[in-house]
UniProtKB/TrEMBL annotation, chain A:
Residues 61-256 form the ABC transmembrane type-1 domain. This is Inner membrane ABC transporter permease protein YdcV. It comes from Meiothermus granaticius NBRC 107808. Keywords: Cell membrane, Membrane, Transmembrane, Transmembrane helix, Transport. Pfam families: BPD_transp_1. The keyword Magnesium does not apply. GO terms for cellular component: plasma membrane. CDD domains: TM_PBP2. The chain crosses the membrane at residues 7-31, 65-86, 98-124, 136-155, 184-205, 238-256. Its main location: membrane. Belongs to the binding-protein-dependent transport system permease family. CysTW subfamily. The gene is ydcV_1. It is a multi-pass membrane protein.
From TrEMBL, chain B:
Belongs to the binding-protein-dependent transport system permease family. CysTW subfamily. The chain crosses the membrane at residues 29-55, 99-119, 126-146, 178-197, 230-251, 279-298. The keyword Flavoprotein does not apply. PANTHER family: INNER MEMBRANE ABC TRANSPORTER PERMEASE PROTEIN YDCU-RELATED, INNER MEMBRANE ABC TRANSPORTER PERMEASE PROTEIN YDCU-RELATED-RELATED. GO terms for cellular component: plasma membrane. This is Spermidine/putrescine transport system permease protein PotB. The keyword Transferase does not apply. It is found in: Cell membrane. Residues 92-298 form the ABC transmembrane type-1 domain. Coiled coil: none annotated. It comes from Meiothermus granaticius NBRC 107808. It is a multi-pass membrane protein.
C-alpha cells in the first residue's frame, strides 16, 4: 500500500468533516427546546412528537414517497428496456451515435432547463387534456424523464460486463426468447437493475428544481415544504424532520451498498 | 452487419440466436421506443419549442405573442428600453465565474480525498466512499438551509469573522458571495470525488515510483506522473460540476441574497414571478449552448469513464 503524505490525509479528513457539518448542526438543533432563534435552551424530543401530529408535513412526506416510488418503478422498467435495446441489438453506427447522445442529454442538461422544458411541454399538453394540470402526475412524468438515463447507464454497464457467452450458451441449449429473458437475462441483470433503481429513487428524493416547476397546489412535497418554510421562518419541526430524513437516507445508502457489492 | 433492406431477410446468428436482421430490428424497437419517445416528447421536442419561443414576445398578460424577432437576445446582451445596462451580462459572467471557482475549489479538495480513499484497505474503501456520498443524498434545500444557520451570527464561524474584523460585529456571513461558494462547493464535491476516485483507483503506481527513483520533485511527480493518468476521471468530474453549477438557483437564492443573482435565478424569475416565457427561453438557450459545449468536450476527452 502507498503511504500518504500526512498533509493530504488531514486535508481529506477535514473536507469530509465539512460535508457533515450541516447535518450535525440540524440534528443538534432538533433537540433544542427553543422555538425561535438558535440559543440552546435544554434538551427535548418534543419536536419529534409534534412533527408526527403535523398533518401538512405528513401529507408532504406521503407525496414525496409516492412520487419517488412511482417514478422509480416507471423509470426502472423503461431504462432497463433501453439498456437492453442499446447493448443487445445491431443498430448501425450512425443511429447508435444519436441514441448515445439522447441517453446523455438528460444527464448533462442542467436541472433548470429540463424543468423549463417540462413547463413548456405541460403547457402545450394541457390544451389536449386536463390531466396535465400541475400536480403529482406532472411531477412523476418530470422525474421519470431524468431518471430513465441514469437507470439505463447503470444497467448498460452491467450488460457490458456480462458479455455474450451466457446469452449464446442459453440459446444453444434451446431457450426461447421469453424463457431466456425471464430465467437468464433478468436474474443476471438484477444487481444492475437494483443499483439503477436505487440511484433513480435517491435522485427523485434529492430533486428540488423539477418538483418546484411542475408541482401544483395540492402536490406539496418535503423539499418544497422546507423551501417555503425557509422563507417564512423555519420551525424546529423542520429540524426534526431533516434529521429523520438524513437517518433514513443513511440506512438506504448502506442497504444499497450491501446489495450492489454482492 | 449490413442494414440495407435487401439484407433484412438474410439469416444471421446474433448472440447465439438464429434469426433475421428484420426480426431483430422489430423486436429491438419495442425495447427502444418507450424510453426514446419519452425523452423525445418531454425533453427534446419541448427543448426545440424553447428555441422557437425565444424569438417570440411577452404579451401584456404574460401570454406569448408570435412576432419572430431578436428582442430577447438583445435584452440578453443588455439592451433595454432605457439603453444599454451591464446587469444581465454581469449575471451571465458571474454565473460563469462562480461555476469556474466552484469547480476549481472542488477539484483541489477532491484530489486529497480521492487519494485518501483509494489508499485505504479494500475492505473499508467503499465505506469511505459511501461517507462522501451520504450527505449528498440529503436534499439540497435542507443542506443549504443548514449553511444559512451555520453562517448566522450565533454560530462560531460568524463569531470568528467578527473578531477578525472581516464582518461588522453582530453581522452574519450570509447573504454573501462567500456563503454561495461554501454552499456550492459542499454541494458538488462528491461529483468530482467519485469519478476522480475511479481514475485514482486504477492508477499505475510504477510510473510514480519511476519518477521518484529519478529524483523528480514532488510537484513534478504529481504533474507528470499522476495528473495525466487522472485526466479521464477529472474531465467527467469537472463537467458534472461545472454544468449544474452554471444553472444552480437554490443555493444563490438562499445564500446569495438579492444582489447575487445567477443565471438560474434569472430563468426562474422569468418562468415563475414575471411570467416572461420568451425571455426565459432565450436565457435558457444561452445556458444550454454552454452545456452542449461541455458535452462535446466530454465525448472527446472522457471516453471510457462511466458517468455513473
Amino acid at each position: 500500500m502507498h503511504r500518504l503524505n500526512p498533509l493530504v490525509r488531514t486535508v481529506a479528513l477535514v473536507t469530509l468533516a465539512f460535508l457533515y457539518l450541516p447535518m450535525l448542526a440540524i440534528a443538534i438543533l432538533s433537540f433544542n427546546r427553543t422555538r425561535y432563534g438558535l440559543q440552546w435552551n435544554g434538551f427535548t424530543t418534543d419536536w419529534y412528537t409534534r412533527l408526527l401530529q403535523n398533518a401538512e408535513i405528513l401529507e408532504a412526506a406521503r407525496n414525496t414517497l409516492v412520487l419517488a416510488v412511482v417514478s422509480t418503478l416507471v423509470a426502472t422498467v423503461l431504462g432497463t428496456l433501453l439498456a437492453i435495446a442499446l447493448e443487445r441489438y445491431p443498430w448501425g453506427r450512425r443511429s447508435r451515435g444519436w441514441l448515445d447522445n439522447l441517453l446523455y442529454l438528460p444527464v448533462v442538461t442542467p436541472d433548470i432547463i429540463l424543468a423549463v422544458a417540462l413547463v413548456v411541454a405541460f403547457g402545450a399538453l394541457r390544451a389536449i387534456s386536463t390531466l396535465f394540470e400541475p400536480g403529482l402526475l406532472t411531477m412523476i412524468l418530470g422525474h421519470v424523464t431524468f431518471q430513465i438515463a441514469f437507470v439505463a447507464l447503470t444497467v448498460r454497464s452491467r450488460l457490458k460486463s456480462l458479455g455474450r457467452d451466457l446469452d449464446e450458451a442459453a440459446r444453444d441449449l434451446y431457450a426461447d426468447y421469453s424463457y431466456f429473458v425471464r430465467r437468464v437475462l433478468l436474474p443476471l441483470l438484477a444487481p444492475g437493475i437494483v443499483a439503477g433503481a436505487m440511484l433513480a429513487f435517491t435522485l427523485s428524493l434529492d430533486d428540488f428544481v423539477i418538483s418546484f416547476f411542475t408541482a401544483g397546489p395540492t402536490s406539496q412535497t418535503l423539499p418544497l415544504f422546507i423551501y417555503a418554510s425557509v422563507r417564512r421562518g423555519v420551525t424546529p419541526e423542520i429540524h426534526a424532520l431533516s434529521t429523520l430524513i438524513f437517518l433514513a437516507t443513511v440506512l438506504l445508502v448502506l442497504a444499497s451498498e450491501r446489495l450492489t457489492r454482492r | 452487419m449490413q442494414t440495407t433492406p435487401s439484407s433484412l431477410g438474410r439469416l444471421v446468428v446474433w448472440f447465439g440466436e438464429l434469426t433475421t436482421p428484420g426480426r431483430l430490428y422489430r423486436r429491438g424497437l419495442w425495447f427502444l421506443l418507450p424510453a426514446v419517445i419519452w425523452i423525445l416528447g418531454l425533453l427534446v421536442i419541448p427543448g426545440l419549442a424553447l428555441v422557437a419561443l425565444s424569438f417570440a414576445e411577452r404579451g401584456q398578460y404574460g401570454d406569448v405573442l408570435w412576432n419572430w424577432n431578436l428582442e430577447n437576445y438583445s435584452r440578453l446582451l443588455g439592451y433595454g428600453i432605457f439603453g444599454w445596462s451591464p446587469d444581465t451580462i454581469l449575471i451571465l459572467l458571474r454565473s460563469l465565474w462562480v461555476a469556474f471557482v466552484t469547480t476549481v475549489i472542488c477539484v483541489v479538495l477532491a484530489y486529497p480525498l480521492a487519494f485518501f480513499i483509494a489508499t485505504q484497505p479494500p475492505r473499508t474503501r467503499y465505506l469511505w466512499l459511501a461517507l462522501v456520498i451520504i450527505p449528498f443524498w440529503t436534499n439540497l434545500v435542507i443542506r443549504t438551509y443548514a449553511w444559512q444557520m451555520l453562517l448566522s451570527p450565533e454560530f462560531p464561524f460568524a463569531k470568528v469573522a467578527q473578531v477578525l474584523g472581516l464582518i461588522p460585529a453582530d453581522g452574519a456571513l450570509y447573504p454573501s458571495a462567500f456563503a454561495v461558494y461554501i454552499g456550492m462547493v459542499t454541494a458538488f464535491l462528491p461529483f468530482v470525488v467519485m469519478p476522480l476516485f475511479s481514475s485514482v483507483e486504477r492508477l499505475d503506481w510504477s510510473l510514480v515510483e519511476a519518477a521518484q527513483d529519478l529524483y523528480s520533485s514532488r510537484v513534478r511527480t504529481f504533474f507528470q506522473g499522476i495528473w495525466p493518468q487522472t485526466l479521464p476521471g477529472l474531465t467527467v468530474g469537472i463537467i458534472l460540476t461545472f454544468i449544474p453549477a452554471m444553472g444552480m438557483f437554490v443555493i444563490p437564492d438562499l445564500l446569495g441574497g438579492a444582489k447575487y443573482l445567477l443565471v438560474g435565478n434569472l430563468i426562474q424569475q422569468q418562468f415563475y414571478s414575471s411570467r416572461d416565457y420568451p425571455y426565459g427561453a432565450a436565457v435558457s438557450l444561452g445556458l444550454m449552448i454552454l452545456t452542449l459545449f461541455g458535452l462535446a468536450i466530454y465525448r472527446r476527452r472522457g471516453q471510457g469513464v462511466e458517468l455513473v
